[in-house]
Amino acid sequence: MSSETTGASYASAGVDIEAGDRAVELMKEWVKKATRPEVVGGLGGFAGLFDASALKRYERPLLASATDGVGTKVDIARRMGVYDTIGHDLVGMVVDDLVVCGAEPLFMTDYICVGKVYPERVAAIVKGIAEGCTLAGCALVGGETAEHPGLLGADEFDVAGAGTGVVEADRLLGAERVRPGDVVIAMASSGLHSNGYSLVRHVLLDRAGWSLDREVPELGRTLGEELLEPTRIYSLDCLALTRTTEVHAFSHITGGGLANNLARVIPDHLHAGIDRATWTPDPVFTLVGEVGGVERAELEKTLNMGVGMMAVVPAESVDAALTTLADRGVESWVAGEITERGDHAEAAVLNGDYGDGGTSGDRAA
């Protein structure tokens, strides 16, 4: 053994503090754009600050909180080397859970875990998060980048985030407001969003052996471009609905599929019947089913099938709701109705077959 030894260091263990500092410098310009007047201070503190005196205008403000990630969709971003869209997915998953109860998203924080800090890559991820926050009307007040050599490969990463919102207590939305005769309005998704990617990757990449740069005629673009399509963020659209008309409940269609998520906002004595014929799922959903031989029931409990958010409104609010969404560029349509449970064993079910490209019922945008 040599008489001269080199002492261990953080760098020799695989953690590059200077790279982390460089990443912070690169992301600052994007974080500055994702702000609100209530934000106090800037990037670099140990905690993000938000002026809570802004809540004085509420009679009884209820704070809502949510946390989420984007699952194995990060693997698609890694394989494609595209890092500035995955943040939109993260924000959508968090803020659209907040808005379900009627809460206005106020601020978010993020957590990025990497095997090795590549400053430009981390900054691109944060850029996407900041852009998503801007689309959602909330501020990005802080975050953390953690380097975990030995636990993650150099090119591997994961992202997570947490958000806080506020809603007036007497405007809280949910199952308690839903009544027989209410109408269910569906809002189109932008594609797969951020759920079911373990199934999609298993079917298209692993079993079928398709490459991400494969041109898929049914999709009109490459497979990778389709799979990386950012999650639509509905928070400002949903808040606009609550301002322009009466809304009883929202349901964010994520993991578990349409029926299971809608059932979460349906009272025990009521039933939501959704007519599949009122819309045609985007080709990617059919593709996964056909290539993988996946049964429809399995698809529907895993993927959003073309619906990213649902609103439950009184029948007299339907026209106003569809008009508001159309004005905001959100494709929406009447998808079903609320009835007494009666002999129905389940709170929410899908009926009939999907449309063939045409539409039935009221539709906007």
From TrEMBL:
PurM-like C-terminal domain residues: 179-344
Pfam families: AIRS, AIRS_C
Catalytic function, reaction form: 2-formamido-N(1)-(5-O-phospho-beta-D-ribosyl)acetamidine + ATP = 5-amino-1-(5-phospho-beta-D-ribosyl)imidazole + ADP + phosphate + H(+)
Compartmental location: Cytoplasm
GO terms for MF: ATP binding; phosphoribosylamine-glycine ligase activity; phosphoribosylformylglycinamidine cyclo-ligase activity
One CC-aspect GO term: cytosol
Pathway noted in the entry: Purine metabolism; IMP biosynthesis via de novo pathway; 5-amino-1-(5-phospho-D-ribosyl)imidazole from N(2)-formyl-N(1)-(5-phospho-D-ribosyl)glycinamide: step 2/2
Keywords from the named record: ATP-binding, Cytoplasm, Ligase, Nucleotide-binding, Purine biosynthesis
PANTHER family found in the cross-reference section: TRIFUNCTIONAL PURINE BIOSYNTHETIC PROTEIN ADENOSINE-3, TRIFUNCTIONAL PURINE BIOSYNTHETIC PROTEIN ADENOSINE-3-RELATED
Annotated family: Belongs to the AIR synthase family.
Name of the protein in its database record: Phosphoribosylformylglycinamidine cyclo-ligase
Lineage of origin: Bacteria, Bacillati, Actinomycetota, Actinomycetes, Kitasatosporales
